[in-house]
Design goal:
Blueprint: H1 17-35, H2 42-58, H3 60-64, E1 69-72, E2 75-78, H4 83-92, H5 101-125, H6 130-140, H7 144-152, H8 157-173, H9 176-189, H10 197-205, H11 216-230, H12 235-239, H13 241-246, E3 253-254, H14 259-266, H15 271-290, H16 301-318, E4 322-323, H17 328-340, H18 344-365, H19 370-395, H20 398-401
């Protein structure tokens, strides 16, 4: 008599390595981000949380129709951030029954990091396969500057930088209208998005876009201000919202990891002279970077991304009155370049800019004063490497480029 057949349980196939990697990244990010929710920063405690308290107490309309006033011990001022940031606080205030104002601000910052990762994915997807783009975008969440800027500090440079990254992503795809609209939305959120303007100038001078698209950034900016205008804030105030910010601080450097930190420390020039010299130098550099197409060949693919990284690094490095966080766009674009073109020099540039930004953050958050000076040296070195490789790329003749026309080259 034969014994009954026994069913054999087949082992489950192992998860693909990319899936395991993604799960590991998101688990690590969740642990890191949640552990930093309670990190106390003066920006959140003195400004953002009181703004949230005002919104919860008085409502959205009263918080948008005029510059939002806050008065706490030792602080008396108003919300000098552009209205789109207040829109995010208003949305988050709907959860005020479950979370404190402090935690809500941090959650907005974390949401900004996730948004930025999505923008980087869309950028990488134009140059790399889907799996590499997804892992690269997820890995961005663990960059030191992203962790320190969002969940630790409570800032949202992730949002304007993410929108600026979309400018590059749309340019890579030839989606000119979307590119210009993304630029207008980025500037509406934060004026520092203007750092990517020389990249747009290059696109204009290389005759890829027509004057028909020129009004689109203004339309996007205006659209972002409509809720505040409907709430009662005068249109002129919304159009000139950044003029007040320009005169807030009279320092050549606010812990920024650029050469102006040394100039300010050594008192080489006066504030007024430094502003003039730095502004002129930046305008000339922007025009030079934007006008590259006049003489040399058009850039495509990863070479176009290289131009954006150079621009995003050069602008805050040359400009005076910069803050410690203003290299965030350079942080994420340099990282994207290293992901899609992994070479020793691209990885070195991305690491140097990350360490430079981390040094500046440490100057502000941990009173590690020397951090911004070390950061200035690191980012300065990275900028030299970027300019060198951009120059070499531009000098290559179109014939020589035929063999390396792939965007992954």
């Amino acid at each position: 008599m034969t014994s009954p057949a026994r069913s054999v349980v087949q082992p489950s196939p192992p998860l693909p390595m990319r899936t395991v990697t993604l799960i590991g990244i998101f688990l690590l990010a969740s642990v890191v981000y949640s552990s930093l929710l309670g990190w106390r920063t003066t920006d959140v405690e003195w400004w953002f949380a009181p703004w949230m308290d005002h919104i919860i107490r008085y409502g959205a309309k009263a918080s948008l129709e005029a510059p939002l006033q806050v008065q706490i011990e030792g602080v008396n001022g108003f919300a000098n951030y552009s209205p789109p940031y207040l829109y995010l606080l208003i949305l988050a205030s709907s959860a005020s029954e479950w979370f404190s104002s402090f935690v809500l601000v941090k959650l907005v910052a974390i949401a900004g990091a996730l948004f930025c990762a999505a923008c980087i994915y869309y950028l990488l997807r134009a140059l790399t396969p889907p799996s590499a783009s997804l892992i690269g975008a997820a890995g961005m969440l663990l960059l030191p500057s992203v962790v320190l800027n969002g969940p630790a500090w409570g800032q949202t440079d992730t949002i304007w930088s993410g929108l600026a990254a979309l400018v590059v992503a749309f340019a890579l795809r030839g989606q000119w209208a979307a590119m210009m609209l993304a630029f207008g939305a980025a500037v509406a959120f934060k004026l520092q998005a203007i750092f990517i303007a020389p990249f747009l100038l290059y696109m204009v001078l290389s005759r890829r876009i027509t004057p028909l698209y020129f009004p689109l950034p203004l339309l996007a900016y205006a659209a972002m201000m409509v809720p505040a205008w409907l709430a009662g804030r005068p249109a002129w105030d919304l159009a000139t919202v950044y003029l007040e910010q320009a005169g807030t601080y009279r320092w050549l450097s606010m812990n920024a990891p650029n050469g102006w930190s040394f100039v300010q420390y050594l008192r080489l020039v006066s504030y007024e002279t430094g502003v003039i010299l730095g502004t002129v130098a930046t305008v000339l550099a922007a025009l030079a970077l934007g006008a590259l197409s006049v003489r040399w060949r058009r850039l495509h693919g990863a070479d176009l991304l290289l131009l954006s990284v150079t621009v995003a690094t050069a602008m805050p490095y040359l400009l005076p009155k910069m803050h410690d966080r203003y290299f965030f766009l350079a942080d994420i674009l340099a990282y994207a370049l290293a992901v899609c073109r992994p070479k020793p020099w691209t990885i070195g540039v991305a690491v140097a800019i990350q360490l430079g930004s981390a040094g500046a953050y440490a100057s502000h958050m941990l009173d590690f004063t020397v951090g911004k000076y070390l950061g200035a040296l690191l980012i300065g070195g990275a900028l030299i490497v970027l300019v060198h490789h951009l120059w070499c790329t531009l000098r290559v003749t179109p014939t020589a480029m035929t063999a390396s026309s792939s965007p992954l080259a």
